[in-house]
Amino acid sequence: MKSCVTKDNIVLIGFIALKFLLQTVLIHPAYELHRDEFLHLDQANHLAWGFMSVPPVTSWISFVIKLLGNGVFWVKFFPALFGALTIVVVWKVIGKLGGNTFARVLGATCVLFSSLLRLNTLYQPNSLDVLSWTAFYGVVVLYLQSERPRWLYVGAVVFAIGFLNKYNIVFLLIGLLTAVLLTPARKVFTKPAFYGAAGLAVLLILPNLLWQYRHDFPVTKHLKELSETQLVHVDRWRFLTGQLLFFFGSLPVILVGLYALVRYRPLVKYAAFFWVFFITLAVFFYFRAKAYYAIGLYPIYIALGSVYLGDLLGTGWQRYLRPVLVAIPALLFIPMYEFAFPNRPPELIVEKGQRHRWEDGKDHALPQDYADMQGWRELARKVDAAYAGLGLPGPGKTLVLCDNYGQAGAINYYTTEGIRAVSFSGDYVSWFDLDTPYTQLIRVKNASGAVDELAETSPYFREARKADSVTSRFARERGTTIFVFTGARIDINERIAVELAGGD
Fold first, then answer.
1. How many other C-beta atoms can be found within 10 angstroms of the C-beta atom of residue 71?
2. Do 46 and 125 have their domain in common?
3. Does residue 351 belong to any structural domain of this protein?
4. Longest Cα pair distance anywhere in the chain, in angstroms?
5. What's the structural domain count of the chain?
6. How many Å apart are CA 280 and CA 294, to the nearest integer?
């Protein structure tokens, strides 16, 4: 039996180990989890075939994390794992295309020292999204190479996983199918297996589609809200310039990959990918997408370019360029380490005096993602203290209502009092428990809305007070205030039901 412990596999294991090591040192202990991570973790407590914010796969992973103890280690493990698997897929695709050891090392280095290091620090659907794009493109390469129907079915499964993780993969499908129509690869549309695979993909994603239908397609409402609150601030030209940064040290390899698709005979049969690149970017550009939505597009071109360069630089003086190409991504990572990751306390970042554009279209002293990883433990601790101060026997009598999903998720993650906070924001609108009558209310208000809260809400209760607020200097939630209302004069459940129904 042939041993699987080959030189190439040992090198690949080394890349995987380095990937996990880097991910552990790129986040300074001063930072907590991100607001989105709290929401995704809370989905494990409400398993379903869909959510307003994301499809169901993230909740399944969150459930596994919950079984493992819900610790930060496991929260960070999975995005790092998906990043490592992206390296593995690129490595394997290069091998299937005939790339040598240098080509594999080059491809793995380019993927390792890229924006994926930043993306893989957060537990969000994005890491698995990039892996899904890369794996799907890899399967397409294998199909074009062999034209074996089984790869179409494998592609259907990969697409379904990607779709059930993040709808962003639909952009991949638009770009790929359009590109295939422009090349001889269009003959796939005459294959019965293509339609069988398409049917399999639909069957696998059908539970989510039915969930969307039964809930009046909340994804469209989410996309509309996203467009009005976030994408409206996206500059299309910033989208294009942003593409240059994701794999900056790998740009020569990516460009060579595009060139090889039309000039390098062993790769000409994959020419559809030449059009995939430009069509997919054009679709993202048209829809005013965030720049990082397109990250999954690039790893396959790193694989293609590495194969060509592995052949081109195989002999003569050109072979001396090999270490240069491998070194470029690694060397460019060194300055990136200083400013592109939350590996320094916020005080040091603010001292630099740089300004950072947030989704609100304004410039701030700290990157938005970093500010979103501050103040949550403080908030949860102070809400716990306010709750404990009520002296109630259990959580059923007190409603903890927050202004946004980050507040609710953080409280539910850190609470030691068994609190299950909710919000009219994000998926929490579906998670209100109105079966038990509430007589007390703990209201968590954003800084902008805290000024009038006592005056507006206190008439509905016998007692009202401001309990505390978030004082963390660098938190996006700085100024978020905790109010306590006891002795309800109204039916809180009825009032919440009216709010959920969209009433006044």
1. 10
2. yes
3. no
4. 87
5. 2
6. 8
Task: Give the C-alpha separation, 129 to 162, whole Å.
Answer: 6
On whether both 27 and 115 belong to a single domain, the answer is yes
Strand partners, 399: 441
Q: Which amino acid is at 42?
A: D
What confidence tier does 4 reach under pLDDT thresholds 50, 70, 90?
A: low
466 and 406 in one domain? yes
The string of pLDDT tens digits covering residues 92-130 is 999 999 999 999 999 999 999 999 999 999 999 999 999
Burial of 42 (0-12, 13-18, 19+ CB in 10 A): buried
Report the percentage of the chain scoring pLDDT > 70: 95
Residues 238 and 302 in one domain: yes
Say how far apart CA 421 and CA 384 lie, in whole Å: 11
DSSP H stretches of helix in 99-235: 101-112, 116-119, 125-146, 149-165, 169-181, 192-214, 218-229
Residue 441 lies in a domain: yes
Range of the domain at 228: 7-339
pLDDT, position 276: 97
**Domain stops at, among 288, 315, 339:** 339
Confirm whether pTM is higher than 0.90: yes
Same domain, 78 and 202: yes
Tokens describing residue 330 = 């690694």
Return d(Cα 306, Cα 321) in angstroms, integer: 13
Say whether 152 sits in a helix, a strand or coil. helix
CA dihedral 268, 111, 354, 35 (to 10 degrees): 110
Please return the burial class of 152, using the count of CB atoms within 10 Å of its CB with bins 0-12, 13-18 and 19+.
Answer: buried
